[in-house]
Amino acid sequence: MEMNIALLPGDGIGPEVIDQAVKVVKAIGQKFGHNITFTEAVVGAAAIDATGEPYPDATHEIAEAADAVLFGAIGDPKYDNDPKAKVRPEQGLLLMRQKLGLFANVRPTFTFPSLVHKSPLKLDRVDGVDLVFFRELTGGIYFGEPRGRNEQGTKAFDTNVYSKFEIVRLARMGFEAAQKRRKLLTCVDKANVMATSRLWRETVQELAPEYPDVKVEYEFVDAVAMRLIQWPKAYDVLITENLFGDILTDEASVISGSMGLMPSASLGISNKLFEPIHGSYPQAAGKDIANPLATVLSAAMMFDYAFDLKEESKMISDVVNQSLEEGYVTEDIADGGTAYKTSEVGDWLAWKILT
Ligand code: IPM
Ligand code: MN
């Protein structure tokens, strides 16, 4: 297969972890006979430094033309404590999501047998957790208008808005995913308080009869925040709006003990982007110590979601599992054993694929 992949390494450890994913993707290409080309572009603080814009048009053109985008991380501490900064790296990410129409953010939480003992929760609660969030990504309070301040600057406001079609397209993805999994869908909302949430709930209720094999549960977001750590195995597929999904997926990403190891996909009508859930980890930038596995697993998701190549995807997850079992890992999960460099882990994974 011909594959044209855009690489957007971004900031901090982004470039290092993307390098490892590229090694792995190249190895898969070689093994399975795919012809893969990579085109690189800047985004985030790196883009502001280079062009003054967090998501330059040139980057958008490359991302839009690609079959898939592999994205590293965004964010630089020099912008964090300056609330008056006019351009912020994070705007690059939001603009990219919006301009590429990436309306569904797929964030799984699963366990690795060799890491599950590191969970902050009791082993019986997390062993075997396997859930996935479908977070709406281009609507809601992240983008709603009006937003801003009054003239005196003494009042600030954001607006949460959802149109029915935005809920329908996200919910359908959730239903379809549930049909391929354990057939349970949880609609996460705050329908006891918010009008947008009531539209979510009503819309999902209308769609449910089209998916008779899927059991649908409706749960308030505050209760989900609680039950997610009490009994995460209660969940299979969860669908929710942008802000709730932002918060809950951070919570979910650490319960399996694999902090920083979870991948994600952002899907649109034609564009697809894959990125690790973790951030830019600026303290580690350039040190060759960051864990590349979340980005490598995002590449695994790419083969599955962008190219429907399940075997390639599974081979990547398998070698990642092997590296964990054999302790060929970076310092964050070395557990007192030998800690390998970011680049060494990437080399090892690529070598495993090719041998
Ligand atoms: C995420 C991040 C972003 C978000 C930030 C960096 C804008 O937290 O991808 O979850 O809030 O969506
Ligand atoms: Mn977030």
UniProtKB/TrEMBL annotation:
Read off the SMART domains from this record.
Iso_dh
Q: Which keywords does this chain's UniProt record carry?
A: Amino-acid biosynthesis, Branched-chain amino acid biosynthesis, Cytoplasm, Leucine biosynthesis, Magnesium, Manganese, Metal-binding, NAD, Oxidoreductase
Where's it mainly located? cytoplasm
| Site positions (Important for catalysis) | 142, 190
Task: State its Enzyme Commission number(s).
Answer: 1.1.1.85
Question: Which residues are Mg(2+)-binding?
Answer: 222, 246, 250
One Pfam family it belongs to: Iso_dh
Going by the record, the broad EC class of this enzyme is: oxidoreductase
From the Swiss-Prot or TrEMBL record, state where the protein is found. Answer: Cytoplasm
Required co-factors: Mn(2+); Mg(2+)
**Annotated substrate binding sites:** 97, 107, 135, 222
Q: How is the cofactor bound?
A: Binds 1 Mg(2+) or Mn(2+) ion per subunit.
Pathway(s) where this gene product acts: Amino-acid biosynthesis; L-leucine biosynthesis; L-leucine from 3-methyl-2-oxobutanoate: step 3/4
Gene Ontology terms for molecular function: 3-isopropylmalate dehydrogenase activity
Residues passing through the membrane, by range: none
Catalytic activity annotation: (2R,3S)-3-isopropylmalate + NAD(+) = 4-methyl-2-oxopentanoate + CO2 + NADH
Residues in Isopropylmalate dehydrogenase-like domain copies: 4-349
- HAMAP family attached to this UniProt entry: LeuB_type1 (MF_01033)
- Role of this protein: Catalyzes the oxidation of 3-carboxy-2-hydroxy-4-methylpentanoate (3-isopropylmalate) to 3-carboxy-4-methyl-2-oxopentanoate. The product decarboxylates to 4-methyl-2 oxopentanoate.
Subunit structure, briefly? Answer: Homodimer.
Q: Which family does it belong to?
A: Belongs to the isocitrate and isopropylmalate dehydrogenases family. LeuB type 1 subfamily.
Q: What is this protein called?
A: 3-isopropylmalate dehydrogenase
Source organism per UniProt: Algoriphagus ratkowskyi
